[in-house]
Amino acid sequence: MATSAGVATAGGPASRRIPPSFDEARRSLRAFNRVRRGVRVVDVEKIVGSVGRSRDFDGAFMPLRASAGERWKHVDLAFHQGKDLPPVNLYRLDDAYFVEDGNHRVSVARYHGAEWIEADVTEFRPARAKGRLAEPAPGPASRAA
Question: Please, are residues 121 and 97 in contact by the beta-carbon 8 Å criterion?
């Protein structure tokens, strides 16, 4: 089993793996404190799973259900037409991100080899870090162009 920023992932080709569950990862890290970080640019490769939809997309974020095909096609068409899509909503645990809203946008971005995606990020942090109070979170980053 490999780990990504404290989040375990099953071995095997990325396209065959089921991404890790956000709730399981959050419980294992005991990360229950929520800090809104705002809109920023996130490396697509750091997006490792989904919130509540981990069984709908594979490890490469391709849809596992045929019913998702039409939605995926609409997002893909918007991507090709250069339309501005809203930021995805991501939850951050350690150095890994989970999609709260925008699974199809992440899927299309990954499919086309995009390196980054605009995201509204909420970070989950443990109450204590190594026996002491966690350090204060840094302020929100400015919006990336």
Answer: yes
Q: Which tens digits make up the pLDDT trace of 121-145?
A: 999 998 765 554 444 544 444 444 3
Q: In which element (H, E) is residue 142 found?
A: none
Q: Which residue has the tokens 């909420």?
A: 122
User: What's the CA gap between 64 and 55, in Å, rounded?
Assistant: 8
- The reply to whether the predicted model has a pTM over 0.85 is no
40 closest CA partner among 123, 134, 104, 111: 123
Distance of CA 36 to the CA centre of its chain: 15
Burial class (CB in 10 A: 0-12, 13-18, 19+), 57: buried
Amino acid at 102: G
How confident is the model over 73-130, as pLDDT tens digits?
A: 999 999 999 999 999 999 999 899 999 999 999 999 999 999 999 999 999 998 765 5
Assign domain 35-128 one CATH number from 1.10.10.10, 3.40.50.300, 3.40.630.10, 3.90.1530.10: 3.90.1530.10
For the chain, the structural domain boundaries read 35-128
